[in-house]
Amino acid sequence: MIRIYYDQDADLSILQERTVAVIGYGSQGRAQARNLKDSGVKVIVGLRPGSSSAELAREDGLATAPIGEAAREADIIQMLIPDEQQAEVYAGEIAPHLKAGKALMFSHGFNIHFGQIVPPQEVDVFMVAPKSPGPMLRRLYTEGAGVPGLIAVYQDYSGRARDLALAYAKAIGLTRAGVFETTFREETETDLFGEQCVLCGGVAELIKAGFETLVEAGYAPEIAYFECLHELKLIVDLIYEGGLTEMRCRVSNTAEYGDYRTGPRIIDQRVREEMKRVLAEIQSGQFAREWILENKANQPVLKAMRRREREHQIERVGKELRKMMSWLKK
Ligand SMILES: NC(=O)C1=CN([C@@H]2O[C@H](COP(=O)(O)OP(=O)(O)OC[C@H]3O[C@@H](n4cnc5c(N)ncnc54)[C@H](OP(=O)(O)O)[C@@H]3O)[C@@H](O)[C@H]2O)C=CC1
Ligand SMILES: CC[C@](O)(C(C)=O)C(=O)O
Ligand SMILES: [Mg+2]
Ligand SMILES: [Mg+2]
């Protein structure tokens, strides 16, 4: 059974003697640093030279420093820059300051699990991963609530790594909702699988395939956009709030019947077999090796695919249709 921790399981006082360096001030960095500060934890935000975020962090009332300096000052170093940048920044600016007894933290396990960052044995290594984007983590904290999260301990040199992870999770509001204990391996592999097969890759291809099928059959691209992309939010919101059952209660009976009848023909055995192959590539490290090489080569494949996808007809149609939707932010 997976273990779940709440506020009463975490002792914030163990952070009171410690300084936390939050490296990066993006989606997670800003939210985590502000929540830590408001929970009474001493925080320094570590930023690269000329960082565009320095002014914002200072406006938010946080101390800033170059990354190396923040890492030197801190007892706990939380890596919140993009995953593909972390290994280089770690080697150059964090590792020299990782003295015995310090802690190195992550909100995603890729670099530890796939050996891109190999910390010395005499430090704690753990993860605290909110299950939400940064702005939502911050908003719920200010409202006195919290989002659920994950913790994982990779290396427990001090014997207190789990206590530190729980205290950090409490300081950013996660134990108000509940924190699940996982491992770096489980978090990393399921995260990659979920985003590739379902959340990003799966959904994007499903949308395009539906849109292209309707357009090729002679239907108006605008109508195809509404049916295959725009209305997805309505469905996802219902699923998010009440699961598949709630969604199926709220759509028409015709839609519900069509769901049961046709869904398994679309996501069929072949798709399930392919998902298993994708999972095997993630587990074996094949995907990680490919992605690491891609970054070493300055992301040529990513850039080419990004360019091609942005030119898809559904993106051109959507750009025009969204101008009619006054409720959407620019
Ligand atoms: N985004 C999310 O919702 C979630 C993210 N995570 C994890 O959290 C971590 C952080 O992700 P996220 O917040 O999205 O990251 P962001 O892309 O928002 O991070 C941006 C920050 O990283 C800094 N940065 C970028 N490149 C470098 C570099 N080469 N050297 C130094 N600083 C750099 C930027 O600096 P500058 O300000 O100078 O531009 C900026 O402060 C990742 O491990 C991610 O997997 C986990 C759960 C959810
Ligand atoms: C779904 C995307 C994600 O895995 C996330 C924010 O959890 C990511 O890597 O961005
Ligand atoms: Mg994820
Ligand atoms: Mg991810």
UniProtKB/TrEMBL annotation:
Pathway annotation: Amino-acid biosynthesis; L-isoleucine biosynthesis; L-isoleucine from 2-oxobutanoate: step 2/4; Amino-acid biosynthesis; L-valine biosynthesis; L-valine from pyruvate: step 2/4
Binding sites annotated in the UniProt record for NADP(+): 25-28, 48, 51, 53, 134
Residues annotated for substrate binding in this entry: 252
Catalytic activity: (2R)-2,3-dihydroxy-3-methylbutanoate + NADP(+) = (2S)-2-acetolactate + NADPH + H(+); (2R,3R)-2,3-dihydroxy-3-methylpentanoate + NADP(+) = (S)-2-ethyl-2-hydroxy-3-oxobutanoate + NADPH + H(+)
Domain KARI N-terminal Rossmann: 2-182
Cofactor note: Binds 2 magnesium ions per subunit.
Enzyme class name: oxidoreductase
E.C. code: 1.1.1.86
Residues annotated for Mg(2+) 1 binding in this entry: 191, 195
Keywords: Amino-acid biosynthesis, Branched-chain amino acid biosynthesis, Isomerase, Magnesium, Metal-binding, NADP, Oxidoreductase
GO molecular function, one term: isomerase activity
Cofactor annotation: Mg(2+)
Domain KARI C-terminal knotted, residue spans: 183-328
Residues of the active site: 108
A Gene Ontology term for the protein's cellular component: cytosol
One GO BP: L-valine biosynthetic process
Binding-site residues, Mg(2+) 2: 191, 227, 231
Spans through the membrane: none
Family, similarity comment: Belongs to the ketol-acid reductoisomerase family.
HAMAP family on file: IlvC
Role description: Involved in the biosynthesis of branched-chain amino acids (BCAA). Catalyzes an alkyl-migration followed by a ketol-acid reduction of (S)-2-acetolactate (S2AL) to yield (R)-2,3-dihydroxy-isovalerate. In the isomerase reaction, S2AL is rearranged via a Mg-dependent methyl migration to produce 3-hydroxy-3-methyl-2-ketobutyrate (HMKB). In the reductase reaction, this 2-ketoacid undergoes a metal-dependent reduction by NADPH to yield (R)-2,3-dihydroxy-isovalerate.
Name recorded for this polypeptide: Ketol-acid reductoisomerase (NADP(+))
Lineage: Bacteria, Bacillati, Bacillota, Clostridia, Thermoanaerobacterales
Name of the gene: ilvC
